[in-house]
Design goal:
Layout: H1 2-13, H2 22-29, H3 31-41, H4 46-67, E1 79-83, H5 89-102, E2 111-114, H6 116-119, H7 127-138, E3 142-145, H8 161-174, E4 180-185, H9 187-196, H10 198-203, E5 206-210, H11 215-228, E6 232-233, H12 235-249, H13 256-277, H14 285-289, E7 290-291, H15 293-297, H16 300-311
Parallel strand pairs: 1-4, 1-5, 2-3, 3-4, 6-7
Helix pairs in contact: 3-4, 3-5, 7-8, 11-12, 11-13
Amino acid sequence: MTEFKDAERKLTELELSATVDLHKEIAEVGIEKILEELDADLVGLAPVKKRIREIAALLLVERVRRRLGLTAEPPTLHMSFTGNPGTGKTTVAQRMAEILHRLGFVRRGHLVSVTRDDLVGQYIGHTAPKTKEVLKRAMGGVLFIDEAYYLHRPENERDYGQEAIEILLQVMENQREDLVVILAGYADRMEKFFASNPGFRSRIAHHINFPDYNDAELFDIAGLLLAKMNYRFSAEGSEAFKRYIVARKRQPHFANGRSIRNALDRARLRQANRLVANPDPSLTAEALMTLEPVDILTSTVFEIDRKGKAAS
């Protein structure tokens, strides 16, 4: 009862009648611009973008509450991003680092992206210095650990990953006001990882799943990537690339946007060789910009796809 009265007394000392213009706050910190850039840079991912906006709104309100003395402890901001490769996890992590910085939840707002090899040593006494060096670089920003489940290898008794995990857990708890950790990887493997390491699950406040892109979204991604490089498909080239997407998705190791980027790089290579081999040395800017069906359809993806259909 005494604690309640003390809290009530402190609240009456605040200027509770004062108003706060949240729209003005949003404009001042510039997070709407970051969210708009995220919309422009990433095709689809509506559930992810919605969740990022929700987190940004929570942090904005928390910022105002902090200024008014309505909060005491820093919020837990560590996150888990799950999904297949090439679904935009690293890009969203970069934008999240910017949002956290603009709202005052990290000092610098940079992103340090690492994997197991950056944290875990190969002999006794090697892991702690490696992990601490990475944490030192990441302080004041966001540490993004891709394929985080590889930190834990219970089948290997001599594995040093557990040492890195213990250091990470301690820092995530004791220095959460100066570092946000994002763990990323396949959804099923991350679930097993959290089951084996409950300390991580208890420290993760936000779990965000990144869905795969559908065919139309993958084609739109290709269009965005080409536009940034001053390339484009011809009308027939567009149809050829749509066929490529269908064929490539049937094959192993498809990595969403990453596979589309790789496909475009190879198409540009074939286009360059086609243009150089052309007996007419005079080329227009349009010819230099345009990817034709032959630049797409000569991909080995189609040959592999035909063989796969024949085998089945």
